[in-house]
Amino acid sequence: MTSVPPLYILRHGETTWNAMGRLQGHFHSDLTDLGRAQAETQRAILGARDTDGFDLVSSPQGRALQTARIVMRDMPGHLRTDPALSEIGLGEWAGRDRATLLAQTGAADGFALYELAPGGEGLDALQARCSAFIATLRRPAILVTHGITSRMLRLLLTGRPLADLRHVDGGQGVVFHVVDGRQYRLTLGA
């Protein structure tokens, strides 16, 4: 992979569907009180960093935009959206209960569901989408995205194989700093 500028990558805060165990994909549910607090935490984490001159880019999906507006409200610059940062498509399974699907399909874990979802995007297509997005980056940026898309971006940026996706660290209310092919998990006070 060619040289990529420094990036801060954030997952949106907890949503009502996250709290209920429902898969979202391209569907929307609002941030919970905890989700808004997680976004405020991300805002504080970035507030302690020098982000002057960073592009501000979010997934166009509502939960990511809600998070981005909280995180970036005091930052200079224009927030733009890019559909490449959208969550992996889940086809017919969007909105369904994760635990029920795991039981019905016998899938080993939630990651397996992304490959099994009828009409879903699949991990190979997500990988291609994220690779194409990374190739467009010319300036340092703060990216607000989703759980699986965040993991895929960071997997690619750190040169790991697709088989490692389920082992890439996740989390809401944290910020991942990726620079020179290395990932750092930032939390308040760290």
UniProtKB/TrEMBL annotation:
PROSITE patterns: PG_MUTASE
Binding site for substrate: R11, H12, G13, E14, T15, T16, W17, N18, R63
GO molecular function: phosphatase activity
Range of residues in the leader sequence: none
Gene3D superfamilies listed in its UniProt record: Phosphoglycerate mutase-like
Pfam families the UniProt entry points to: His_Phos_1
Cellular component GO terms, alphabetical: cytoplasm
Protein name: Phosphoglycerate mutase
